[in-house]
Structure to design on (260 residues):
């Protein structure tokens, strides 16, 4: 076949055709010869090539299955970086664990546990290593992204006959008194957030929301902005002041919840 190609090319060179036509014919002859060569290889080695392709696919599938979690961690790292969902130093919550990020690499994100999401668990200060694959399946709550303040919520539950007007007044006075201690920093932080993210100004004062789970109880939810890392101390101050000012016969069950 190669000899036939060479002979045909030589005869074509001896013809009196224009150079452009000769070039087109030479290219066509080369393509036809290459096609015939490939077809011959496939016909002769077809079974062997098919077996090789099947083996190659099997090896690739086994490799993917064996390294699935590792690949997911790498993709999770790319996803985390490309979306800028968190950085070193941020305080986040993921899969029930809250903490501050101290290191990030291609396969994992490392936190120092600050508080447990579940109020029944109080162990903190542990180093938690989270595989990056969890960024695909778990929601990430970043307390740091909107500045250095978060919204602290303190829940108080009273009996229906208790003086909830007095309880509301105590909570508002206590909350606003604490906010006055960092009001300037809070105003600057709120202004920066409104400018950068084009959103309404975050909460800058204490407010109480009343809810009824049933006719016999009244829930008072105090919300106020609190500096990062000081939510627990502020919550304790509010609860202690409430306990000292609320009349003794009242029944209440204080607990707290920190959220963005």
């Amino acid at each position: 076949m190669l000899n036939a190609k060479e002979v045909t090319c030589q005869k074509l060179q001896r013809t009196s055709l224009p150079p452009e036509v000769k070039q087109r014919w030479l290219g066509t002859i080369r393509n036809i010869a290459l096609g015939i060569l490939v077809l011959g290889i496939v016909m002769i080695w077809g079974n062997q090539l098919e077996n090789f392709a099947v083996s190659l696919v099997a090896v690739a599938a086994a490799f993917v299955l064996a390294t699935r979690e590792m690949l997911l961690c790498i993709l999770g790292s790319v996803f985390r970086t490309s979306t800028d969902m968190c950085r070193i130093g941020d305080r986040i919550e993921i899969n029930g664990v809250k903490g501050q990020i101290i290191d990030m690499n291609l396969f994992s994100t490392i936190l120092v546990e600050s508080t447990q999401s579940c109020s029944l668990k109080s162990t903190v200060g542990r180093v938690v290593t989270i595989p990056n694959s969890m960024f695909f399946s778990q929601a990430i709550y970043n307390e740091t992204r909107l500045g250095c303040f978060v919204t602290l919520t303190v829940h108080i539950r009273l009996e229906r006959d208790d003086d909830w007007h007095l309880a509301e007044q105590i909570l508002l006075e206590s909350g606003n008194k604490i906010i006055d201690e960092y009001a300037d920093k809070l105003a600057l932080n709120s202004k920066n957030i409104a400018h950068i993210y084009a959103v309404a100004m975050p909460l800058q004062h204490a407010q109480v929301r009343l809810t009824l789970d049933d006719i016999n109880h009244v829930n008072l939810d105090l919300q106020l902005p609190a500096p990062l890392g000081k939510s627990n101390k502020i919550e304790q101050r509010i609860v202690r002041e409430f306990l000292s000012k609320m009349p003794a016969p009242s029944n209440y069950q204080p607990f707290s919840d920190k959220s963005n």
